[in-house]
């Protein structure tokens, strides 16, 4: 295997600054770091002011953390004494960055009632998917017609129940010498909404992730607008890999891109990192969002509740599919599930491909809210 081509020496400080920001808890995507370096290239730069302005424009620090950003910029580029920022976390969520070194953490697993298999420890590994005879072709073909729809700004001709098309009607009047036997009508088109899958690849979901990736491949192949991201201790977008038509090749490509297979889980911080990256956050706007996770959040669930609330405000429909619901005795009694249940549109069984495909094909039909169903069942 040939060694990867090293970056130019001049690019190292800018790439290193992106890593520094992530180390201090800033959600910076690889695309933002690349845009930062491109902006610096376009500006010259003629002075440190140009680099500073490029960093602000592309790395987009949150307003309430602008002071921390400025301190880190001065420490990195001007050599000032490094500052210790209150609240610095050793558990920051990382977005996939091919240029970054893998980090190993040596903490012991922490046990928690209701989530013994759930841990925030990052353990990096790769996964290979075996060939099998399962097929999701029928699901992929039925998916476009089953998705919820939205009204597009584009219009199409209509024979009835449409708005009067004045421009085309006047054109027909001129062509017919003042006679218009049938007025021209148009109505807005209906197009399928985006389907966004967020797949938990932590250790507690190990026996389900292979099936989830097969389902995700069928979704991307069947829906014109679909996005798939994985999360554990990191956040990785795998949609381009799943666009490969052959399933085994697509899953192999996706497996090589995800570093945190079967490791720890930080659901709340990872979803907040997803929402803090403008490009990723836009995927959820007006979309049908399906989270495939057991929702066993370690420790305080406040960040998870905040992330789910913000995600629900952007999404058209927010659903959580958990394999735990495959047990007929399941009840959402953990503190995390109790907190997010009022924020969910659906809480469904995610224990099998059959259950998931049936649910996804029903997204276009209205259903009672998750809280209504589960409060009634308890």
TrEMBL record:
Region (Disordered): 86-117
Compositionally skewed regions (Basic and acidic residues) per UniProt: 93-108
InterPro entries: UCP010256, Uncharacterised_CoxE, vWFA_dom_sf
PANTHER family: BLL5662 PROTEIN, BLL5662 PROTEIN-RELATED
Descriptive protein name: VWA domain-containing protein
Organism: Aquamicrobium soli
Lineage: Bacteria, Pseudomonadati, Pseudomonadota, Alphaproteobacteria, Hyphomicrobiales
């Amino acid at each position: 295997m040939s060694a990867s081509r090293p970056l130019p020496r001049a690019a190292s400080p800018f790439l290193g600054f992106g890593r520094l920001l992530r180390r201090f808890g800033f959600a910076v995507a690889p695309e933002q770091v690349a845009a930062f370096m491109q902006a610096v290239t376009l500006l010259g730069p003629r002075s440190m002011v140009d680099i500073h302005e490029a960093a602000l424009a592309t790395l987009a620090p949150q307003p309430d953390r602008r002071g921390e950003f400025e301190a880190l910029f001065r420490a990195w580029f001007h050599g000032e004494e490094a500052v210790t920022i209150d609240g610095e976390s050793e558990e920051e969520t990382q977005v996939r960055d091919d240029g970054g070194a893998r980090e190993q953490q040596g903490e012991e697993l922490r046990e928690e009632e209701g989530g013994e298999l759930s841990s925030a420890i990052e353990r990096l590994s790769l996964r290979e998917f075996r060939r099998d005879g399962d097929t999701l072709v029928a699901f992929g073909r039925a998916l476009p017609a089953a998705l919820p729809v939205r009204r597009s700004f584009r219009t199409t001709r209509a024979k009835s129940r449409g708005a009067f098309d004045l421009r085309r009607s006047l054109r027909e009047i001129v062509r017919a010498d003042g006679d218009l036997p049938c007025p021209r009508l148009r109505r807005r088109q209906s197009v399928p909404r985006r389907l966004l899958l967020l797949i938990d690849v932590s250790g507690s979901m190990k026996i389900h992730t292979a099936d989830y990736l097969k389902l995700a491949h069928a979704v991307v192949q069947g829906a014109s607008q679909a996005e798939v991201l994985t999360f554990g201790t990191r956040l990785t977008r795998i949609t381009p890999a799943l666009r490969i038509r052959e399933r085994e090749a697509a899953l192999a490509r996706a497996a090589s891109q995800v570093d945190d297979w079967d490791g720890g889980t930080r659901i709340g911080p990872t979803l907040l990192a997803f929402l803090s990256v403008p490009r990723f956050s836009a995927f959820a706007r007006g979309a049908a969002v399906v989270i495939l996770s057991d929702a066993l959040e370690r420790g305080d669930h406040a960040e998870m509740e905040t992330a789910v609330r913000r995600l629900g405000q952007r999404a058209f429909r927010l659903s959580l599919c958990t394999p735990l619901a495959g047990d007929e005795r399941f009840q959402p009694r953990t503190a995390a599930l109790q907190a997010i249940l009022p924020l969910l549109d659906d809480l469904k069984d995610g224990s099998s491909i059959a259950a998931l495909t049936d649910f996804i094909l029903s997204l276009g039909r209205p259903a009672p809210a998750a809280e209504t169903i589960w409060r009634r069942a308890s």
